[in-house]
């Protein structure tokens, strides 16, 4: 319910939490004057005055010469609001704990309000909200990776960016497979189509030999796209499970055996990682490399589901500290509790 309200009226939860804090302090300290209340809550008197006026108009508080108190209606409202927001504050504590555990800038945990809702769509909505906050009115480039989660992110962009005419979506790697709709080229094109932005293509195979890699890097259009990619202010990507991604990339049997032998659990940017974040196999590809990520101002990773938890934690052991993660409660709880099902 709360995430639905926030989606329709952004900022509502912050307002509710602030007013609950005011009601709670009045309850604990009544009777209390406005100046003393402002000091306790670290609010300006002007800000507090407008909030108190609203609460008084709703008959939640009453005031006399001795100070402010909660009305009976205010008492019941405070209790109901506290129960409503308890779930949200729990999630916020989990977000802080998860970010600290993973050693990254921030975590956003998506809470499913409807078990029938598509989990990837809810993750995607949160990603788009973060992207909106990061964008300004300057010309800017956004690099995007591929995958089924990224396809959901692309579709969530519809009508969300007010003015995206100055945005350029660039695929962060090449790719052409049996599922073109999850390839970065198509993801970038879809985002541009839905937002009125521009996009480029990176016409290169998903993975290449070392010799072909060097030759492709000299192609004028590829060089141009890679130059745009190097100027990206944001890269959006997902984190994959090692064997699932290995099969999607159609790796040779000897490479699959190598991944199993070394305990690979995660894949991102063509690197397969073990549970300690050590690279155990690397796929040669055209596009953004893990080594370049520290130069990108904003990194937004998205992955959810309990079965992705170990992959998320493994990748974050090597991720730049300014990485932001969007995940769900299922993955977050497994990581926080350290309970992996292999």
From TrEMBL:
Residues 15-84 form the CggR N-terminal DNA binding domain. Keywords: DNA-binding, Transcription, Transcription regulation. Residues 93-337 form the Sugar-binding domain. InterPro entries: CggR_N (IPR048715), NagB/RpiA_transferase-like (IPR037171), SorC_transcr_regulators (IPR051054), Sugar-bd_dom_put (IPR007324), WH-like_DNA-bd_sf (IPR036388), WH_DNA-bd_sf (IPR036390). GO terms for molecular function: carbohydrate binding; DNA binding. It comes from the Bacteria. Belongs to the SorC transcriptional regulatory family. PANTHER family: CENTRAL GLYCOLYTIC GENES REGULATOR, TRANSCRIPTIONAL REGULATOR-RELATED. This is Uncharacterized protein.
